[in-house]
Amino acid sequence: MGARKGFSRKYLGIPYAVFLAIFVILPLFVILYYAFTDGTGHFTIGNLTGFFTDPNTLGTLLYSLLIAFSTTALCLAISYPVAYILAMSNLKRKSVLVMLFVMPMWINFTLRITALKEILTVVEGNLAFHPFMNSIIGMTYDFLPFMILPIYNQISRLDRSLLEAAADLGAGSFDAFARVTLPLSMPGVASGVSMVFLPAMTNYVVLDMLYNSTYIMGSLIGSYFSAYDWHNGSMIALVLLAIIVIVTLATDAGEENDQKGGALI
Amino acid sequence: MKASDNIIEIKHVTKAFSDNGFVAVSDFNLEIKRGEFVTFLGPSGCGKTTMLRMIGGFDVPTSGEMLLGGKDITAIPPYKRPVNTVFQRYALFPHMNIYDNIAFGLKLKKLPKDEMDAKVKRVLEIVDLEGFEDRKVSTLSGGQQQRIAIARALVNEPEILLLDEPLGALDLKMRKEMQLELKAMHDRLGITFIYVTHDQEEALTMSDKIVVMSRGQIQQIGTPEDIYNEPANAFVADFIGESNIFKGIMTGKLKARFAGGEFECVDDVPEGTQVDIVIRPEDVIWDADSSKGTISGKVTGVIFKGMHYEITVESGKYEMVIRSTKSPKVGDTIGMSIEPDGIHVMIAEDHTTRFEADIVDASTLDYNGREIKCDLGSVIPGARIKDEVLVDGSGEPIDTSKIKVQVSIEPADIELSDDESAGLTSGQIINLIYKGDHYSYVVRTDHGHDLIVDDEYLWNMNDRVGLIMPEDKMTFGVKK
Which end of chain B lies in a sparser environment, N or C, as judged by fewer CB atoms within 10 Å? Predict the structure, then answer.
């Protein structure tokens, strides 16, 4: 490697290690500490049992999951055909079209939701009548690019000769899609899902702005923390973390082949 | 019509791409017999892969038809053709194991599981990869993936197996092995193989019949021996094996003059005919005594090639390459002779460039915005110039808007220039052949026309050049 004496390339990693330690590892331990202690600093699992016995927190969890599932499903239903058509077409200005779908991300999030709120008010009259539906619409609008991009990238990278091979072996266009395109685009779907599902469980700002007063996980944590109850707030954060890990593992298991990764954006 | 032995007949097939109008294949005619091993051979961009893709159904011909077993398949989609393809980069499905890859076609036909298992097993035996069913594609070497790609095609029992440069990605040793194996496989299975390659040695080794292609057109169809021994034109001679190519002229019965000497030959071509002469390096006999032999020359290079020496000799302005088991020294003057049957005489093709130009006025033509000076009074029959206006016999002005002038110029009269804007048009060199004392270039102009230019200087493949056409070297005629 011809490195100068006393200098090793791995020293370059030190700033990142420090960063990770301060901003990722340490906070995790802080959360872990608060989650399993009570107000006097003694170890307890009361916060954990409390979470799973309190119908309010459980209800919030279910409602969050429902919101997240619906948002993800709707995003997927819209994104897949869009990404597929964009990636497969021979349009000359393809990148411009892709950019149009991504462009909303460049505009401030609250501004976007405020604009959406005005539109929905015009359509529905009073937003308070359809809080759930409005939340789904808002979240879908907000997270759509995060679903489209990874799927689009994955399908764009698909080797067209695989589709020719499928046709050559007797597959009509439906069979070729079902047996080749769809399975090979799953890594993109998986990263799209994980990028939409998790924020959808916690992003309560959208709900607030669209007058949905029901709590989701994010709002629950927020309310505990603003009441200085670090212990219960941390426990909920920990439960959420566990759910995230489970979802991530599940989507990872969904992609059996080696083509995963790199599909994020 | 009784079933002929032809499995496929290709009639006047032409393919022009709609986006840029490029004609990849033009007026392709071929009959292939059941069980033949046919190779499409040519340099890249000659249209061989496009032709194969049309047989596979991936591209649709612009015109012409293809009959498979007497049935028109021109417009049938690939998944309905009894034809399977081995793709250039294998195109194995990365998300499936070997079994699922091979059984892909069988599953679509909804074969029972046990029958499917048996077929997959048998075809894996054919390609010598028994027991690979559960392996992942990514764990296989290039050569193994190649075999799986062949197995995946063969398992469907196609009437024709199409192979698109299937060995291109393998290393030399592996390629040689696979060539022999493919040939043996073909002999054993009796399926018709259509093989595409740019490697002339591969084509000569494996094929029953070779179709040499260049610029979208068939140059020659024949057995490997035919193609090597009796090349139809300078392109084939240059592409297949090493050759010395000279311009020559017939000087008498069975006599040809080229490379500064007069030689006896066996091809009966009328006296006075312009010809191209092909001499294989191994057919030149040399003698250390320069007075022996028809021509003599100075040795400028000797390279040891293992089995033989490759000797370069300069004779006047001509250059000759000789292959011999003994070698002279560089600087020696040697005599050279050629047996009559070692001289291949081909009637020179007409390489004149012709294009149409519009008339601007009595002495000016327009070709794509460039001016050409030309005295139209002497070009248009019965016309003369009066007061700078073209008039007919009775003095009436001629309406020139309907008349086009055909301009012709010989390959040797066109000059190449570094400056792309220097000439009438510009283009890219797509092929070159050394003809003893000059190079013959094929230049593809920016309008998509190919024209032949002879030039003594060496340009490189893909060079961008301006084409200067001196007006005094042009001949003009009226285009009806």
Answer: N
